[in-house]
Amino acid sequence: MNITLDEIQNFIVVVDTGSITAAAQQLEQTVSAASRSLARLEQKLKTTLLRRTTRRLELTDEGEAFLERARDIVAAVENAEEHMAARQGRPAGRLRIDAASPFMLHVVVPLIAGYRERFPDVELELHTSEGYIDLLERRTDVALRIGRLKDSTLHARPIGTSQVRCLASPAYLAKHGRPRKVSDLRKHALLGFTEPESLNEWPLLDEGGQRVRIKPTIGSSSGETLRQLALEGNGIVCLSDFMTRGDREAGTLVPVLSRHIAELRQPINAVYYRNTAISARIASFVTYLAEAIGDHGFDR
Fold first, then answer.
1. pLDDT single digits (tens) 209-233
2. pTM of the model
3. Do residues 20 and 9 touch, judged by C-beta distance below 8 A?
């Protein structure tokens, strides 16, 4: 039969991307080469793995069964490579990382060059998602999560904290005035989250000493979108320091109602499944990230 690892990996990527064209782009192949690889695999297995419709590819029952085995084979090869690399004292293999897009853009991406310089044999895949994901389903090795964790099936390593504060652009404040007390927010445009609702509870105490929950004038599911809206002078926003440090240092966003802020530090954790022995590549990345963030968070 002589099935090759390349053919197996090609099949997995076709399934994960949903098309031969997308798989070819990810694998840096021509579409015809990716198509021929899939055809060879089906010929060697003497079965159809994927049904081709006008709109998409669908796994056959045989394809479903083979996909599970194929993932096990690739994982075994990756683990073998990593084991041999570990014997030589260097982490290696593919590392799939998931984080919310603001954290990926503002924290992870600036650190990648330094990590790659120290660990050149680790192949990185960076994925972004705004909500929690199933690590197994998304084939993710480590996820970076901000806020309290709820999933007890995950092992978590704290890598830092980040203060939350209220901000606005100087242009917005020049036009609409600066709020002096919490009740003044009723006169202002407020930028908040469409989901989860808990993020619209700002670290401000009202006259009764209760946390303020705002009703957004403009809402978004993305913290990065809210940041851009604030930079463009659309209103007051409440965001974590990790994504606004550069804006605060440049003066393009300035704190408001600072005297009324109740300290709220969001924990930042690296998580992976408890039943997974931490690999050298996961450990190398998490340790590097924790050291880079340091003990002081992003308060500067």
1. 778 899 999 999 889 999 999 999 9
2. 0.67
3. no
